[in-house]
C-alpha cells in the first residue's frame, strides 16, 4: 500500500528536543515574522485556536464559510454559540467565492472564516474588503494554507485572527497557532486557554507512537493501534448518538494546554519541514503534469501559489467512495475530505449545519467526486510512477 501520509518522525529529532531551549519564544517569533502579527499564542491544535478565536471576539451570530472542508474545522463555530452560513465555492481553486457573500450578509453576520483548501489560499484581498465594508471579523483558517501565497502575500497575514496547525502539513506531533494584532483578543484567548486541562501523558505517548509506526512503515501495527482507537470512538459516539454531543467530544479533546514538547519538536525540525514542503510541491506538480490528459480535474489559480498541503482532484466518472475503494484495492491509500481512520467518505455538511438551505452549484459538482491523492515524500521514484500509472488507468 502506498501510504497517504508520513509524519517523517525521527527519534534523533525527538532527542534533540531535550536540549532545545526557549522553544516557545522561537516558535512565536517565527509566526510573528511569518504573519506580521504582534501577538502569537501557541495552542494544542488549529481547532483549539479557532475556538479561542470565536470565544475571544465575544460576538455571537452568523459565520460565513465554505462547505467544502473537513467537518472538524466547523466545530469551533458551533461550540462558541454561532451559526453557520455556507457560501458556494469558486470553480477554479474550490475555496469560498467572495462574490456570493455580500448578498447573504444580514444583521446577524459577525464573521467570515476563510478556509484555505488543499494549500490553495482563498481570495483574501476580496474577503478583506468585504469584511471591512460590512464590519465583519475575518478569521483565517490556515490549517492547509501554510506557505501559500495570495497575490504574492503569504497566507496568515490577512486575517484579524489567523489560525494554523502544526501537524496537518507541518509534520508535527501536535500544536497550533493563534495570531492577531488585537491585544484584547490575545489576552482573552490566553486567559481562556489557561483554564484548559493539561494533556494526559498517555495521549502524548499515543501521538509519538503513531508517528513512529507510520514513519517506519510498520503499517500493520499502526493500523491495529488506529483500529482500537476507532472502535473506542465509535462506541462512544454510539452511546452519544446526538450529533451535537459527538461534536462536543471531538472539540473538547483538543481544548487543552499545549505541551512544551509540541513547540520543541517543531523548532528542532523547522528546516527539515521546509525541505519536505518543497518536495511535496514537486511531487504534486509532477502528478498534475502526468495526469494532464486524463479525466482528472485539479485545483488551479492564476494569481495564487499553492503549498499543496493536499492534492485534491475530481473525476466525474466516479463517486468518491467508489473510486477510493478501487484505488485502495490497487494499493493506493487515497482519501476524501476527512482523513480519519475508517472513514472513506465525509457526507455533505449542509444538512447537518446549514441555517439557510439553497443551491450550491459548484460545491455540488465537486463534493461527491472529490479525491485526495497521496503526496508522501518518502515515495521512491518507482512507487510514484506506479501510482501515476494506476491513476491514469482509472482516469482514462
TrEMBL record:
Protein's UniProt keywords contain rRNA-binding: no
One Gene Ontology molecular-function label: transaminase activity
InterPro entries xrefs: DegT/StrS_aminotransferase (IPR000653), PyrdxlP-dep_Trfase (IPR015424), PyrdxlP-dep_Trfase_major (IPR015421), PyrdxlP-dep_Trfase_small (IPR015422)
N6-(pyridoxal phosphate)lysine modification, residue list: 168
Lineage: superkingdom: Bacteria
Catalytic site positions: 168 (proton acceptor)
Annotated keywords: Pyridoxal phosphate
One GO term of the biological process aspect: polysaccharide biosynthetic process
Record-linked Pfam families: DegT_DnrJ_EryC1
PANTHER family recorded: DTDP-4-AMINO-4,6-DIDEOXYGALACTOSE TRANSAMINASE (PTHR30244:SF34), TRANSAMINASE (PTHR30244)
Family stated for the protein in its record: Belongs to the DegT/DnrJ/EryC1 family.
Official protein name in the record: Uncharacterized protein
Amino acid at each position: 500500500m502506498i501510504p497517504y501520509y508520513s509524519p517523517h518522525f525521527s527519534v534523533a529529532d525527538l532527542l534533540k528536543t531535550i536540549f532545545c531551549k526557549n522553544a516557545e519564544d522561537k516558535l512565536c517569533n517565527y509566526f510573528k515574522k511569518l504573519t506580521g502579527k504582534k501577538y502569537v499564542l501557541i495552542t494544542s491544535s488549529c481547532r483549539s485556536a479557532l475556538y479561542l478565536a470565536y470565544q475571544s471576539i465575544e460576538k455571537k451570530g452568523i459565520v460565513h464559510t465554505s462547505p467544502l472542508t473537513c467537518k472538524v474545522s466547523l466545530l469551533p463555530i458551533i461550540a462558541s454559540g454561532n451559526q453557520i452560513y455556507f457560501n458556494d465555492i469558486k470553480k477554479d481553486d474550490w475555496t469560498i467565492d467572495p462574490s456570493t457573500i455580500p448578498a447573504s450578509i444580514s444583521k446577524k453576520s459577525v464573521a467570515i472564516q476563510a478556509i484555505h483548501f488543499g494549500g490553495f489560499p482563498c481570495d483574501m484581498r476580496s474577503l478583506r474588503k468585504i469584511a471591512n465594508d460590512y464590519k465583519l471579523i475575518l478569521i483565517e483558517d490556515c490549517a492547509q494554507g501554510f506557505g501559500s501565497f495570495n497575490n504574492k502575500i503569504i497566507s496568515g497575514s490577512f486575517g484579524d485572527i489567523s489560525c494554523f496547525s502544526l501537524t496537518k502539513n507541518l509534520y508535527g506531533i501536535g500544536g497550533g497557532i493563534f495570531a492577531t494584532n488585537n491585544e484584547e483578543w490575545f489576552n482573552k484567548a490566553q486567559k481562556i486557554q489557561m483554564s484548559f486541562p493539561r494533556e494526559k501523558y498517555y495521549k502524548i505517548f499515543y501521538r509519538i507512537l503513531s508517528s513512529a509506526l507510520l514513519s517506519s512503515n510498520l503499517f500493520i501495527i499502526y493500523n491495529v493501534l488506529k483500529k482500537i482507537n476507532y472502535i473506542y470512538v465509535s462506541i462512544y459516539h454510539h452511546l452519544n448518538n446526538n450529533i451535537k454531543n459527538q461534536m462536543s467530544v471531538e472539540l473538547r479533546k483538543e481544548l487543552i494546554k499545549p505541551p512544551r514538547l509540541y513547540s520543541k519538536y517543531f523548532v528542532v525540525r523547522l528546516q527539515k519541514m521546509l525541505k519536505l514542503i518543497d518536495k511535496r510541491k514537486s511531487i504534486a506538480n509532477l502528478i498534475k503534469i502526468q495526469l494532464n490528459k486524463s479525466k482528472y480535474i485539479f485545483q488551479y489559480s492564476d494569481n495564487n501559489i499553492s503549498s499543496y498541503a493536499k492534492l485534491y482532484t475530481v473525476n466525474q466518472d466516479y463517486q468518491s467512495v467508489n473510486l477510493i475503494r478501487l484505488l485502495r484495492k490497487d494499493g493506493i491509500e487515497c482519501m476524501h475530505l476527512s482523513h480519519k481512520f475508517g472513514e472513506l467518505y465525509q457526507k455533505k455538511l449542509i444538512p447537518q449545519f446549514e441555517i439557510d438551505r439553497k443551491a450550491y452549484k459548484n460545491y455540488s459538482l465537486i463534493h461527491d467526486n472529490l479525491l485526495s491523492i497521496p503526496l508522501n515524500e518518502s515515495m521512491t521514484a518507482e512507487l510514484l510512477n506506479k501510482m501515476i500509472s494506476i491513476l491514469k488507468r482509472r482516469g482514462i
